[in-house]
Structure formats: C-alpha cells, structure tokens
Amino acid sequence: MPAKLKLVKAKPKSKDLAVAEGVLRLEAQALGALADSLNGDFLKALDVLFKCKGRVIITGMGKSGHVARKIAATFASTGTPAHFVHPGEASHGDLGMIAEDDVVLALSNSGKAPELRDLIIYTRRFGIKLIAMTSNAGSPLGQEADVVLLLPKQPEAGSLALAPTTSTTMQMALGDALAVTLMERRGFKPENFHKFHPGGQLGKQLIKVRELMHRDLPLIADTAVMSEALLEMTAKGFGCVGVCDKTGALCGIITDGDLRRHMTPTLPQERVLAIMTAAPRTISSDALAAEALALMTMKKPKITNLFVVDTGKPVGIIHMHDLLRAGVV
Q1: Which of 34, 98, 233, 234 has a Cα-to-Cα distance from 119 of 20 to 30 A?
Q2: Could you give all domains of the chain from N- to C-terminal order, each with its CATH number?
C-alpha cells in the first residue's frame, strides 16, 4: 500500500509580523497615492527652489521637524544650499538666519502647528517665498503659502492611527523627489557630489587623479642614454622613468622590468629609445582614481605606475600605493 501523503499546513504569521507588514503596505500605498498626486504645484515649487538666490530654509515642528532636518541635509549634499531652522527658536532670534533671497519650505501635516506662526508672518512681511508641505490646504500654513505641496489624505499606521507614520514617510519621500529633481535640473555630476562627500567609501571612489598624483616627475629626453635614465629613476624613486620627445610630449616609459629584460654589460650606453616601451598607458588628471586603478589592474601586463598626461604633456605620476593609501582599492 502506498504511504499516505501528509498535508502540511503553512504556519500562520505571528501577530507582530502581521502588524509590521500592515504598516509597510499602508505606507507603500501612501507613496503610490503621493506619486499619483504630483501636478503643476510640484513644478511651481521646483521653479521657486531652482531660482532661489539664497538658501532654502526648511522648517517643521515635532516629527515634521526631524524630517525637515533630513531634507535640508539631502538638499545641501546634492547642490541646493539649505539648512534647518527650528520654528520655536526662530521666534527667539533665529528669524535673523532667514534672508530676503531665501526660500522657506515649511512642513506640517495639519498645517496648524502654532510654532510656525511667527515664521509665516516673517516671510509675508519681507516677501520671502513660502512653500508649504501639508495635507490641509485650508490650514493657516496652506492659505499663506505661495505654493502648496498637498499630501494626499492617508491614514497613519497602527490601530490607534495617531502617531505620525504614513504622513512623515510621504514628507520624506516628497523631499527626496524635490532634491533629486533639482539635482538633475542643475546637471549635478559625480565630481560635484564628491565635493560635498569627501569622507566615506563613496567619497573615496570619487577622488580625482589630480588629488593623488605626484608632480615631481621622473623624466628623460628621448636623446638620452640609459645611464642618464638610471640616475633619474634612482633619484625619483618611482621605479620608472618617462621618455619625452623634443616637444615635451610623453612618448615612452622605462620600468624596472625593462631593465631586467635588457640587462647586459652595455646597457648603460644604450639609447633610451631602444629600451623604452612606446605609447605607454596614461590617464588624465580629471579622471577618477578608480579609473586609474582599472587601467593598472584590468589590462595585461599589470602595472604599478601611471603617468598623468594632459594635452599630451606629462603633468604627474600616480602609483598603486597612492591608491591604497587613499582607500580607492
């Protein structure tokens, strides 16, 4: 008789997992609604921010304030000068941090945070552009703002639906959308990003060759003999020497490996043209250090030095050890 198959019932999700999943799905649904709600007001806000001649002042109270701090940091790191001003502190002197060329982006889900009152009045008095991010267009903040970024009405997460959860997620995402769209409009490039992110692994990957290269170069004329090349190699200590033609352009390189391959009693009298490797690998000073690493290691034979050449002339040299010290490897 064949054995009976046992039906294995799937274990029901724990209550905790069900609650967590519900939060994530509710917030994901809210983000979808937010994306669908984007309209001309978003473009108006974008134009105001793009044309801002001063700084973008981002403010909010409570949880909205925490989100505002993050949005300000994201703006600042992606090419839009910005900083956070606490609305409570603004009423006690920090309004002086806001100039007439600035733009204020105020976050308040209800639009009724009383701490924003003095800041709103200040922007109206001095003609400072005010962008509101709120779910209540009819609120004091919404009515006074030059542009309203209206958050769709979505329930907060949890059975009580009281703590700011869904609303702050939408605020954060809309701030990211503004920052990234502004970054794209400004033509923000990796080198710009590196200027604001010199630390961390990302910063290391965006280091330029010119930041690491040596400028005291081992160079010899193409009319020289190997005894002169050996002296230059020894003096500069890079284990190589560049060979330049009469115009100063780099036409070849001689390395320690070349010396071993051509080692004879008459080597010191040989012409450098007979020993050098013509058309060596080079790199531009504007290239990323990561590109230098690829040139050294991805092609055969692997090398440890690269001459840095701009407009045909050698301007520097970079060694594998320089890349190691900078953390690029």
Answers
A1: 34
A2: 22-188 (3.40.50.10490), 209-326 (3.10.580.10)
